[in-house]
Amino acid sequence: MKKFTCVQDIGDLHTALQEAFEIKKDHFKYQHLGHNKTLMLVFFNSSLRTRLSTQKAGLNLGMNVIVLDINQGAWKLETERGVIMDGDKSEHLLEAIPVMGCYCDLIGVRSFARFENRDDDYNEVILQQFIQHSGRPVFSMEAATGHPLQSFADLITIEEYKRTPRPKVVMSWAPHPKALPQAVPNSFAEWMNAADVDFVITHPEGYELDPKFVGNARVEYDQMKAFEGADFVYAKNWSVAQGENYGKVINKDRNWTVSSRQMAVTNNAFFMHCLPVRRNMIVTDEVIESPNSLVIPEAANREISATVVLKRLLESL
Ligand code: CP
Question: pTM for the full model?
């Protein structure tokens, strides 16, 4: 595997899941692979889980790990080509990226949607520049339109907890005070479309995701109807994904907050969320603290998904 930005990069999901469960039994099984290899993690945005789980995955594989927070101590970076750099940005990304590539063997990048220009976000201009100019295998630690390490961890979690061979998985929009990117719901949809599940997406009108990610999912605007018989409920907020309101919040209806009212019509569903989560906006205290809440096992599986991905990238060197 030369890069990891989407579900296609991981190939056959059954094989990837088997590898994940093998690593889950022994996190250090492939420790020899990373000897004298350096992992660089570049963050343009904040993180708790991705930072820690990906560092841990690098250590599991015997790698040296360097973390760079672009906004804390690095030069302020210009990202547009052709700009006269007479402002506060001291370095251009087109020099910074190959320099970073000089110091490592693999590069992970976190660079969220900026909501300035939808085409730039959906063309993944920052991530693509790392792929083109670093000279190293690159993996996404959540980019503008996808968060594949999260979705792989979510898939591992569903595989571990499913009670039927083909569970019903419902991804539900939920309210949030601020505009959030579509990366997590896009990726989750992409991975669920590739997995053997009955997948339903529910959201208020106006929050339609890009059809490229919706794929064959059933879209149901009535949240209660969508939740009927669900085995897994995956809650997430996202901002408007298309059209003139791209990146905006047009609905804060707390009737969409996942509570025991909606969970009552499910098939005793498990509750999932990628975290961080705003309690009593996205989900009530009662649901997230219930025995059916999988938010901590999901976060734990971030170490597993990252270890599988780094292992495969190391094997390609
Ligand atoms: N789920 C997730 O990616 O968490 P962080 O933003 O804390 O890394």
Answer: 0.98
CATH 3.40.50.1370 boundaries in the chain: 3-146+302-315, 150-299
Nearest residue CA, atom 6 of ligand 1? 47
Angle at which helices 93-102 and 125-133 pack, to 10 degrees?
50
Confidence of residue 73 (pLDDT cuts 50, 70, 90): confident
Topology adopted by domain 3-146+302-315: Rossmann fold (3.40.50)
- Nearest residue (by CA) to ligand 1, atom 3, is 50
Q: Which atom of ligand 1 is nearest to the CA of 299?
A: 1
CATH architecture of 150-299: 3-Layer(aba) Sandwich (3.40)
Binding-site residues, ligand 1, Cβ < 6 A: 47-50, 142, 150, 274-276
Write the DSSP string, 222-245. Answer: -HHHHHTT-SEEEEE-----SSTT
Helix (H, G, I), strand (E, B) or coil at 132: helix
**What is the tens place of the pLDDT at every residue in 135-176?**
999 999 999 999 999 999 999 999 999 999 999 999 999 999
